Amino acid sequence: MAASEANNDEATKEATAPAEPVDDLVSTHHSITVDGGELPYTATTGRIVLREETFKDGRFEGFKPKAEVFLTAYVADVEPGTSRPVTFAFNGGPGSSSVWLHLGVLGPRRVLSGDAGDLAAPPYGLADNAETLLAHSDLVFIDPVSTGYSRAVEGGEATDFHGYARDIESIAEVIRLWTSRNNRWLSPKYLAGESYGTLRAAALAEHLQNRHGLYPNGLLLISSVLDMGTIRFTEGNDQPYALFLPTYAAIAHYHGKHGDRPLHEVVAEAEEFASGDYPLALARGARLSEQERADIVRRTARLTGLSEDYVDRANLRIEHIRFFTELLRDQRRTVGRMDGRFTGWEPDAAGEHFSDDPSISGIRGAYAAGINHYLRAELDYVNDLPYETLSSRVQPWSYKEFEGASVSVVEKLSAAMRANPHLRVHVACGYTDGATPHFAAEHVLARLTIPPQLRENIEVRYYDAGHMMYVHEPSRIQQSADLAAFVSGERP
Asked: Are 189 and 302 in the same domain?
């Protein structure tokens, strides 16, 4: 090949190569009334470029861009040198953006979605959040790759980030970068996650400590799942049947299946049953006498609101989607998985499994409208990509690190707490949460391998709502106060 042709080929490659990505952050200034006074703050939103050190055969090849991660940060405009806490927040999925925590409970603006039985109508709206955690902590909301506006770089492999380990590493790098660039290494730091985001937060605490020496002050675990084995109804695993039963009882109570009995009385009875006689009966199987089995059928049916015939035909084992489909079948209604207070309709009232979760359908439109309006109209960030509130593109999610074992970060959290005895943990549970039941969270917390004195670092709070308990106004007000107290270092 002639030299001129080779030069032309190189020029063509350079001309067609993707442009080097750059951060596209935008800052705006705002204020909000909290605790009777004005709190001015700066909002910064946009995508930051994540780069990785790359090596080939032991030779360093550069710090190369891999992804563009979208975040929204709120920093209170206070006196220089004031060390406020900073809370890094994300939701779960996998495949969820941070919109739910952002516009649901933590941020300075919130979506007006309505609630079960009184949903808001399109086009919805936004309002100031007078209970925002920004009054007590700066906030950074992070959208994992392929959610929100976060994407792999042009020509990059998005699937590289669609798995347990790479997800942890990428979110940790966002936290490290933001902390360094904003001179916040000496600020108290908290990690707030919801649903799968709680598993992410627990693993992040251990990773940040071991990889970067960044020790968090606390974890805010909202609708917690730290061991997938406690919520996955797989063959041979009877554990979820018992751990979901108190949630079934709470949902049945909400829909009038327990008369005028107080909720906490019903839940307490269900927890006692689910701790002893019920799992023992499941374990004994065909060794139960006819009378013993009939007694378990009767008690299970009474607590769950299902018929004795159904419980018997289900072999005592009530899978959660079947429960949500069956509970109100006589009314031709289904109940929500994320929040059992919501109800919906199915085209086939005789179906085995519902085709739609009414608790997600009921609020998703309000959150999508809210974030798409808010980012452009109020935070001045413009991007023509679709903002992915919930994305299926991350599936299948890789758990290759757990091949042949349950997906669990129980030991990760335990190790983080043992290494960092100042690490505090707040766990928020909704009684009608049919995705991450409160009794499963309690079960996992009891299995943390930590010394007794570190158990004082854990607090659990309960709300009369579901997975996104903050869509229920009384729960939102109480939860905001609980989170503020935790981040402020108040002890119960």
From this structure: no
d(CA 178, CA 53): 18
Give the residue numbers spanning the domain of 339: 237-359
Last residue of a domain, one of 334, 359, 384: 359
> Within a 13 Å sphere around the CA of 390, how many CA atoms are in the beta-carbon half?
11
The one-letter code for the residue type at 255 is: H
Residues 214 and 70 in one domain: yes
Q: How far apart (Å, rounded) are the C-alpha atoms in residues 102 and 114?
A: 16
- 380-410 tens-digit pLDDT: 999 999 999 999 999 999 999 998 888 999 9
Angle (nearest 5°) at CA 409 between 405 and 410: 100
Task: Find residue 73's DSSP bridge partners.
Answer: 44, 140
C-alpha distances out from residue 116 to 92, 334, 339, 340, 465, Å: 22, 13, 9, 9, 10
Residues 348 and 375 in one domain: no
Domain boundary among 359, 381, 415: 359
For residue range 362-372, what is the model confidence (pLDDT) as tens digits? 999 999 999 99
On whether the CB atoms of residues 71 and 174 are closer than 8 A, the answer is: yes
Backbone angles phi, psi at 274, to 5 degrees: -75, -15
